[in-house]
Amino acid sequence: MILKIEHNGWFRSMGITLEDAVRLSRELLERCPKNRKGVQRLNYCRRIIEEGNRVVKEAEQTVTLREAVRTSLREREGRRPSTLRELHYVSKRILESQTHIASRPLRSIKPNECQGVLAALFPTPRQFNKGCTVLHSIFACGERHGWCSGNPVASIPKYSMREAEIESLGWGELERLLSAVKQPAHRCLAPVVGLMLWAGIRPAEAQRVEWEDIDWEEGVILLPARHSKTGGARCVTMQPVLKRWLVRVCNGEKHKGLVCPRGWNYRWQRLRHESGMKGWQQDVLRHTFASYHLKYFRDLAQLQIEMGHSTPNLLRTRYLNMRGITREHAQLFWSPQSWC
User: Fold this and answer.
1) What's the distance, CA 21 to chain centroid?
2) How many CB atoms lie within 10 A of CB 320?
3) Phi/psi zone of residue 47: left (φ > 0), alpha (ψ -120 to 50 degrees), beta?
4) Quick one: 133 exposed, middle or buried, by C-beta within 10 A (0-12, 13-18, 19+)?
5) What is the C-alpha R_g of the chain?
6) Structural domain harbouring 280
7) Alpha-carbon torsion 186, 192, 194, 198, what sign?
């Protein structure tokens, strides 16, 4: 009787009754294998308690979505400024407009909730896909730290994007552009235009290329991973026409620092305007390079390497548009005598 009273007092201090404790003990014993008896049965129960305690602690280890966003952004501080701006913008929109989920434990957030957030904030397919990518990276960070056991964004389908076809510059447009860039007012832009047109370097990449990245002896342009859009380094062949173009532009002088001049955006827009270019598309020089390269060299594998693509699929479906490009023009395009 005394033992029962003492136990009753202890159980009450734990917030349960003696009857509750007996019921829990019975449920635990019922889960033991029937062939275990006596001490073996008790030891098995102790193992269940110890293992269960460990699993529960792991399951309860988590942080809020807001804290996961902070950690994710800290881990990406070394990324390019444009990438960081995008990460901060999407993360800020989610945290500020979806306060009901920002303070939730990361482990408790479900796929349907993530999809609802993305649909509410990013109405267009392109915005939705971008938001999905950023939110996926936040939960991926949580997985690495053990704050969630899965990525709820992984099961959310993205929109299938059909990219608009980009035509290469016509021969007349090429002549007007290259004629204008030779003028004294635009001559400082000539090296960058050459890199985009005859090496297929993206505009944003070309703005980060330094003169030291041009290896004249090997005849290549080195694009470090920090300069590349995809984060992978690549080596682009410097064709004779580009070599001659850069030599003429430099007048035999050695340069240092960035190839791209200051005030690039304004200067570049002004050059296009004076060349009579209307409806300019962002990567048209890169697309022109790809189309003329394949028309003349007929080597898709080499072109894929020059472009820095992991597969040839993007080239076939988006880049190559050789409508109106003749064999004669392709030969003239790669001839130093045509432009220098």
Assistant:
1) 54
2) 18
3) alpha
4) middle
5) 32
6) 171-339
7) negative
Core vs surface per residue 164-189: b (16+ CB within 10 A) or e: eebebbeeebbebbbebbeeeebebb
Rounded distance, CA 153 to CA 117, Å?
11
For the chain, strand residue ranges (E) read 214-215, 220-223, 234-237
CA distances (Å), 101 to each of 72, 92, 97, 266, in order? 17, 13, 9, 42
Give me the residues paired with residue 220 across strands.
Answer: 215, 237
CA distance 314 to 324: 21
The 10s digit of each residue's pLDDT in 185-236 is: 999 999 999 999 999 999 989 999 999 999 999 999 998 876 555 556 788 9
Q: Could you say which residues of the chain have pLDDT below 70?
A: 1-15, 53-60, 161-166, 226-232, 251-254, 312-321
Looking at the structure of the chain, the number of domains it has is 3
pLDDT digits (tens, 9 = 90+) for 234-272: 889 999 999 999 998 876 556 789 999 999 999 999 999
Query: Are 44 and 187 within one domain?
Result: no
Lookup: tokens for 167: 């035509």
Distance CA 137, CA 282 (A): 27
CA gap 222, 220 in Å, rounded = 6
Structure tokens at 228: 């590349």
Q: What is the pLDDT of residue 5?
A: 45
Distance CA 6, CA 272 (A): 91
How many other β-carbons are positioned within 10 Å of the β-carbon of residue 11?
Answer: 16
Residue 149 lies in a domain: no
Nearest to 288 by CA among 204, 191, 190, 171: 171
* Cα 139–chain centre separation: 15
Q: Hey, CA dihedral for 122, 123, 128, 130, is it positive or negative?
A: negative
Q: Are residues 56 and 41 in the same domain?
A: yes
| Tokens representing residue 83 in the block | 């990438």
Q: Are residues 332 and 186 in the same domain?
A: yes
